[in-house]
């Protein structure tokens, strides 16, 4: 007698939910991005396009009927002695600032990363070193204008130490003004380098230092062959970013010297501002702004390239 196996109920096929069309699924991410894209287009792309168009025309904004001028505005800017002086001052300003930021930031970062100091001492030093970065650039400008005044604290200290005989007008002397504003920019900007390099130092494995010590290397050799190669990506990224930010510095220069005296502290940013809102030469200012944009794009290209290599 054979036993018949009970019949199993066949599964009921459920209707598959309707699939979204391929086009709709592809448009969903752009729907989420659309508010940001609209803001970028309205606040960045459109103004850039307008400025570029202004640079090829004459009598823009101030007159209704502007005329096409071709490259005349660029020729005028590139042959302007004030623009060439601003370009030279900007090159000195950003180069010295970036080098000093790197040296000071790395020095203080290594000091805070050492094992020779206690935790409390490191915490106190971190607060002291990061203070310049907490002030807004307007506060920094006002403070240093008071400190560097001929009757200010800096001259008083130097006179007390016997280093000067009379008060020096640091921001009003054509031979000292550029170096004075560069020093202020260095003082206010090195904490960002210090924090970034400190994070990089804390990410270096101790095994590398122990292996180098076993090989008989001294502290300088370990710094040269272990620390610097490990910090190379951070140093390159920070250097390029600092060049971009410093080249666009405006508020500090405008609130301390205004580009003077005798254009010795004139920067590309202050030159462009004066052309637009002091001389009302908006076409010339647009051409100068486009040149600054090109310089910034070159620096940004190297920054993106370093990030991809990293």
Automatic annotation (TrEMBL):
The chain crosses the membrane at residues 30-56, 91-112, 124-147, 177-199, 234-255, 282-304. It is found in: Cell membrane. GO terms for biological process: transmembrane transport. Keywords: Cell membrane, Membrane, Transmembrane, Transmembrane helix, Transport. The keyword Secreted does not apply. It is a multi-pass membrane protein. This is Sugar ABC transporter permease.
């Amino acid at each position: 007698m054979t036993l018949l196996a009970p019949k199993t109920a066949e599964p009921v096929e459920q209707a598959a939910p309707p699939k979204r069309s391929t086009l709709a699924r592809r448009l969903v991410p752009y729907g989420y991005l659309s508010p940001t894209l609209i803001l970028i287009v309205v606040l960045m792309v459109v103004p850039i396009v307008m400025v570029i168009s202004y640079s090829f025309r004459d009598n823009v904004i101030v007159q209704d009927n502007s005329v096409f001028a071709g490259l005349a505005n660029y020729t005028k800017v590139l042959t302007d002695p004030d623009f060439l002086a601003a370009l030279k001052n900007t090159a000195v300003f950003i180069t010295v600032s970036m080098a000093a930021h790197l040296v000071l930031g790395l020095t203080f970062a290594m000091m805070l990363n050492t094992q020779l100091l206690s935790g409390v001492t490191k915490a106190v030093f971190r607060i002291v070193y990061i203070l310049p970065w907490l002030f807004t650039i307007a506060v920094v400008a006002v403070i240093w204008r008071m400190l560097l005044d001929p009757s200010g604290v800096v001259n008083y200290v130097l006179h007390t130490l016997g280093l000067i005989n009379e008060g020096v007008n640091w921001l009003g002397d054509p031979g000292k003004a550029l170096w004075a504003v560069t020093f202020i920019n260095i003082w206010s900007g090195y904490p960002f380098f210090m924090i970034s390099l400190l994070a990089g130092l804390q990410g270096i494995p101790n095994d590398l230092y122990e292996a180098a010590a076993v090989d008989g290397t001294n502290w300088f050799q370990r710094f040269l062959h272990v620390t610097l190669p490990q910090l190379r990506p951070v140093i390159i990224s920070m250097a390029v970013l600092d060049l971009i930010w410093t080249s666009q510095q405006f508020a500090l220069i405008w609130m301390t010297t205004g580009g003077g005296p005798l254009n010795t502290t004139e920067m590309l940013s202050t030159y462009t501002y004066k052309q637009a809102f002091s001389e009302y030469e908006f076409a010339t200012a647009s051409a100068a702004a486009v040149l600054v944009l090109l310089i910034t794009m070159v620096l940004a290209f190297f920054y993106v390239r370093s990030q991809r290599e990293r």
